From TrEMBL, chain A:
<keyword id="KW-0472">Membrane</keyword>
<dbReference type="Pfam" id="PF00361">
    <property type="entry name" value="Proton_antipo_M"/>
</dbReference>
<dbReference type="GO" id="GO:0042773">
    <property type="term" value="P:ATP synthesis coupled electron transport"/>
</dbReference>
<keyword id="KW-0812">Transmembrane</keyword>
<feature type="transmembrane region" description="Helical">
    <location>
        <begin position="211"/>
        <end position="233"/>
    </location>
</feature>
<protein>
    <submittedName>
        <fullName>NADH-quinone oxidoreductase subunit M</fullName>
    </submittedName>
</protein>
<feature type="transmembrane region" description="Helical">
    <location>
        <begin position="334"/>
        <end position="352"/>
    </location>
</feature>
<feature type="transmembrane region" description="Helical">
    <location>
        <begin position="274"/>
        <end position="291"/>
    </location>
</feature>
<feature type="transmembrane region" description="Helical">
    <location>
        <begin position="132"/>
        <end position="151"/>
    </location>
</feature>
From TrEMBL, chain B:
<dbReference type="GO" id="GO:0042773">
    <property type="term" value="P:ATP synthesis coupled electron transport"/>
</dbReference>
<dbReference type="InterPro" id="IPR010096">
    <property type="entry name" value="NADH-Q_OxRdtase_suN/2"/>
</dbReference>
<keyword id="KW-0520">NAD</keyword>
<feature type="transmembrane region" description="Helical">
    <location>
        <begin position="64"/>
        <end position="91"/>
    </location>
</feature>
<keyword id="KW-1003">Cell membrane</keyword>
<keyword id="KW-0812">Transmembrane</keyword>
<feature type="transmembrane region" description="Helical">
    <location>
        <begin position="441"/>
        <end position="471"/>
    </location>
</feature>
<feature type="transmembrane region" description="Helical">
    <location>
        <begin position="103"/>
        <end position="120"/>
    </location>
</feature>
<dbReference type="GO" id="GO:0048038">
    <property type="term" value="F:quinone binding"/>
</dbReference>
Length: 499, 479
């Protein structure tokens, strides 16, 4: 029941916020904030109880929906889902705070869309029915399209279009693969069902499995995004309002990563292992290519957007390394990237509110004017480049150490990405806060509200850097067997022969 | 024919009787309001009479008609579609200066044609129904004759429909010449008995396909669609898009099943090629339209292509999918045209993209409905269109039509592009003169009908189980 609440609270909040806007412009903000905080508290309460849990599934909810097709409204929560939910509600609450002053027009409809995206994302992280998964996957799109298209920057329409069409195309391929899996399962076992648990043990031919796996994978790497399907991301992130960017980078990208961990690996163990070297290569290329492009940007938000491409390469690398360590690293990366990139977008938003520009060339020498913001930025820039003591370091270290076993050369290439990360991250600091100021600024430093939203992020990123054990412990029971004990040998497609 | 026979086609009788009474009403006194109320009443009565079937279905009225569950369901669909169109018509015609009352007579007569089509199982009743509908449509399409494009559309439809009817007749004649039968199952049985289908019968089917394809508006018989949609009054366009196409589709399904069409590979391939061509041509030409009516016309061509994929997927899941999609498509099309009709004023119809700019801030509810309809056409979740598309893809995957499905997906993405474009226009910020313009009040009937359609759209998108069960049971009784 509590799982249903997780989805219903934001949905109800969305409707309320829209209606309430008719009376009072501030009311929607408070409703949205309240809905997210309520969810966050509920999720934290659940996490508190995990110690005593037996088995991977902490809570489940099941109702029939369309029995004709074997579709059920089936939700279940394990450690991985729980962590993703915590991240969702945490960033969700912050994205309400971040738009407090930025969004002045059509406040009700804005919060309706924001909460609806969050409800969709929550659904994606919870559902254990593949049809329902696709349903939520699509439900996220429309409100996000509106968020970018209505409240975005100058080139918003183009960005919203591109975002929508890319993800929708990927989604439709996934639908085809889901249905393929459904009928393969039905033909072999005579049971028509979309239930994740039933489909887990679908007997199928090698080629069928590989095709279906590619269908799923395409949808997920569009969303992740991985090279070469990442081109929608810089546009969408740059043009979106700050809250939109935070939700996009912090949460929407994670649904792609989550899909790989939850569906691709357990449903298609054989195919995943067969393609693993190629996908890891794709991940490494993404790390280097994204980093290189990030370095070349002059637009602050665009720069941060490309760092996402680079960081998400680690997810792809670690997920297909088939080691527990790398898997843990991937989950850590999902969380820390959500926090650190979310924070960087908020900083970009704070700067934009003051300077009305995103151009790095027009900034510079801002430290004396904005010392508080400078310090905060320093923390997250350091996090982004992987400084020990901050969460991202743990994540990237675990991924690299775990991947070394299976693909040493690809891992070496990926490690170079850390150097590139240092270069582009330090460039942010240099261009924005150091150097000569080309104009005498008199700017207000961080306000109370801005402090309120950035401080928790700092606390979390440091906590994850020093004591990541709670996360690692929570994830452990949900690691699929294929990762713990890969069985099939790396077949004909291995790039680097294993001894 | 016995009394029970009369009772089982009661909806048809009510509608035809009403057409006669309506003519008398006009002769006594012209009153738009009375006429409208009378027609609404007739449709309501006809719809209610569906539920008092005295005898068990299927009930044969040999040799022309068969009243089975399938026929009853589609009769209901046509009546509901007609009723929704009626609700949208009143305010639309009220503000026009032409004589308005004959419109309702023609609408009743066209509906008679549609109702005959869905229960016919014989070439004669097929042709009668088709012609009754077509001839009424000539008048309906050219109804606002003072508009410049209206008579053009009417003449175009007249010529093309007459031509396609000729093809259809010739095709029937060829089939009859060989089989000596005119009832569908007789034709089927006779073909089964013959070991080889002769070329003349294949040619006959081909010619019939031209007649059917014209009514469905599928490539390459689609040329009339955009012009007729553009030139005819908006409620009529909605009627052509739903009732006319829908009843023809139902007839095609019945005919195809009775002649065991699924056994002829050549027919399968012909339909497959038509489906592919319809999807691509429809979506491709819709991409650059600035006129929303034409855009909807081209998109309807593409949707017929999608439906054909389900049609090709076979008897069971495939035909279920066709009917579900048809229901979703009827709701969405009437909804979309209805929004256009609500926005039209005395002088011209709201049809250009700029007529919709900033609509979301001027008429939020209307814009929300239009957005819902467009998203349903695009197949986005929470709408009936999504379940419909899912149904089609599921049927296709089950039948292994991978090529067609991949093309369907490519086309869905293309389709998304132009639906989203219209939505984007509605969300544009208001221009200065629009801010100052007073918000026009909307007619009650129209808004009521549109809201009901919207609720139905969402309901079927979220809780489709009920309708699915109905369609499934209906299809099971058929085979």
């Amino acid at each position: 029941m509590i799982l249903l609440l997780f989805i219903l609270i934001p949905m109800a909040g969305a409707l309320l916020a829209w209606i309430a806007a008719a009376w009072n412009q501030a009311l929607p903000r408070w409703i949205a904030l309240l809905a997210m905080t309520a969810d966050l508290v509920l999720a934290a309460g659940l996490w508190w109880q995990t110690e005593s849990a037996t088995g991977p599934w902490l809570s489940t909810f099941h109702r029939d929906w369309m029995p004709r097709f074997g579709i059920s409204f089936s939700l279940a929560l394990d450690g991985l889902s729980l962590l993703m939910l915590m991240l969702t509600f945490f960033l969700g609450a912050l994205s309400v705070l971040v738009s407090w002053n930025e969004i002045k027009e059509r406040v009700g409809f804005f919060h309706f869309n924001l909460l609806f995206v969050l409800a969709g994302i929550t659904g994606v992280f919870l559902t254990m029915d593949l049809f329902l998964f696709y349903f939520f996957w699509e439900v996220m799109l429309i409100p996000m399209y509106f968020l970018i298209g209505i409240w975005g920057h100058e080139n918003r329409m183009y960005a919203a279009f591109k975002f929508f069409i890319f993800t929708q195309a990927g989604g439709l391929l996934m639908l085809l693969a889901i249905l393929g899996l459904y009928f393969v399962h039905a033909h072999n076992t005579n049971e028509y069902t979309f239930s994740y648990f039933a489909l887990l043990n679908t007997p199928m031919e090698q080629t069928t499995g590989r095709w279906l796996m590619l269908g799923f994978l395409t949808a997920f790497i569009v969303k992740l995004p991985a090279f070469p399907l990442h081109t929608w991301l810089p546009d969408a992130h740059t043009e979106a309002p700050t809250a939109g960017s935070v939700v996009l980078a912090g949460l929407l990208l994670k649904t792609g990563a989550y899909g790989i961990l939850r569906f691709v690996l357990p449903l298609f163990p054989e195919a995943s292992q067969a393609f693993a070297p190629w996908i890891m290569l794709l991940g490494a290329v993404g790390i280097l290519y994204g980093g290189k492009l990030a370095f070349a940007q002059t637009d602050l938000k665009r720069l941060v957007a490309y760092t996402s491409v680079s960081h998400m390469g680690f997810v792809l690398l670690g997920a297909f390394a088939f080691s527990e360590m790398a898997y843990q690293g991937v989950v850590m990366q999902m969380i820390t990237h959500g926090i650190s990139t979310g924070a960087l977008f908020m900083i970009a938003g704070v700067l934009y509110e003051r300077l009305h520009t995103r151009e790095l060339e027009k900034m510079g020498g801002l430290w004396p004017a904005l010392p508080g913001l400078g310090v905060v930025s320093m923390v997250f820039v350091m996090a982004s480049l992987g400084l020990p003591g901050l969460g991202n370091f743990i994540a990237e270290f675990l991924v690299l150490a775990g991947s070394w076993q299976s693909q040493p050369w690809i891992t070496v290439a990926a490690t170079i990405g850390l150097v590139i990360a240092t270069i582009y991250s330090l460039r942010i600091m240099q261009k924005v806060f150091f150097g000569v100021s080309w104009r005498e600024y008199k700017l207000p430093d961080l306000s109370f509200r801005e402090g309120l939203m950035l401080m928790p992020l700092i606390a979390v990123i440091i906590w994850l850097g020093v004591y990541p054990q709670p996360v690692i412990r929570t994830v452990k029971p949900s690691i699929p067997t294929v990762v713990l004990a890969p069985q099939a040998p790396y077949t004909d497609v291995a790039i680097h022969p294993t001894k | 024919m016995s009394t029970s026979g009369l009772l089982s086609i009661l909806p048809l009788l009510i509608i035809s009787g009403s057409a006669v009474i309506a003519m008398l009403l006009v002769a006594i006194k012209r009153n738009h309001r009375v006429m409208h109320a009378f027609t609404v009443l007739a449709f309501l009565l006809a719809f209610l009479s569906l539920f008092i079937q005295p005898y068990e279905v299927p009930y044969m009225i040999a040799p022309l008609f068969v009243v089975d569950a399938f026929a009853l369901f589609n009769t209901g669909l046509i009546l509901v579609a007609g009723l929704s169109v009626l609700f949208l018509s009143f305010s639309y015609f009220e503000q026009r200066e032409e004589r308005k009352e004959e419109y309702y007579i023609l609408l009743l007569l066209a509906t008679v044609g549609g109702l005959v089509l869905v229960i016919s199982q014989h070439f004669i009743s097929l042709f009668l129904g088709l012609e009754t509908m077509s001839i009424s449509l000539y008048g309906l399409i050219a109804y606002l004759r003072k508009r410049e494009r209206s008579d053009e559309a009417g003449i175009k439809y007249l010529l093309l429909a007459a031509l396609s009817s000729a093809f259809l007749l010739f095709g029937m004649a060829l089939v009859y010449a060989h089989t000596g039968r005119m009832d569908f199952s007789g034709v089927g049985a006779s073909l089964q008995a013959a070991h080889e289908v002769p070329a003349s019968v294949v040619a006959g089917f081909g010619l019939m396909l031209i007649g059917v394809g014209f009514k469905l508006g599928i490539v390459p018989f689609h040329m009339w669609t955009p012009d007729i949609y553009e030139g005819s009054p908006l409620p009529v366009a909605a009627y052509v898009a739903t009732v006319s196409k829908g009843s023809m589709l139902v007839l095609l399904m019945r005919f195809y099943r009775d002649i065991n069409g699924y056994e002829y590979t050549i027919l399968w391939w012909v339909f497959a090629i038509i489906a592919m061509a319809s999807m691509f041509v429809g979506n491709w030409l819709a991409l650059l339209q600035q006129n929303v009516k034409r855009l909807l016309a081209y998109s309807s061509i593409a949707h017929m292509g999608y439906i054909l994929i389900a049609f090709l997927a076979g008897l069971h899941a495939g035909q279920e999918a066709v009917i579900f999609y048809l229901v979703a498509y009827v709701i969405t099309s009437i909804g979309a045209f209805g929004v256009l009709a609500m926005l039209s004023d005395k002088v011209r119809d709201a049809e250009l993209l700029e007529d919709f700019s900033g609509l979301f801030w001027r008429q939020p509810w209307l814009a929300a409905i239009f957005t819902g309809m467009l998203l349903s056409l695009a197949g986005i979740p929470l709408t009936a269109g999504f379940i419909g598309k899912f149904y089609i893809v599921a049927a296709g995957v089950d039948a292994g039509l991978w090529l067609l499905l991949v093309l369907l997906i490519v086309n869905s993405v293309i389709g998304l592009f132009y639906y989203i474009r219209v939505i984007a226009v509605m969300f544009q910020p208001l221009r200065d003169e629009q801010v100052q313009a007073k918000r026009a009040s909307l007619p009650f009937f129209g808004i009521f009908a549109l809201s009901a359609l919207m609720v139905l759209l969402l309901w079927l998108g979220i809780f489709p189980s009920g309708l699915i069960a109905v369609i499934r049971n209906m299809m099971l009784t058929m085979s």
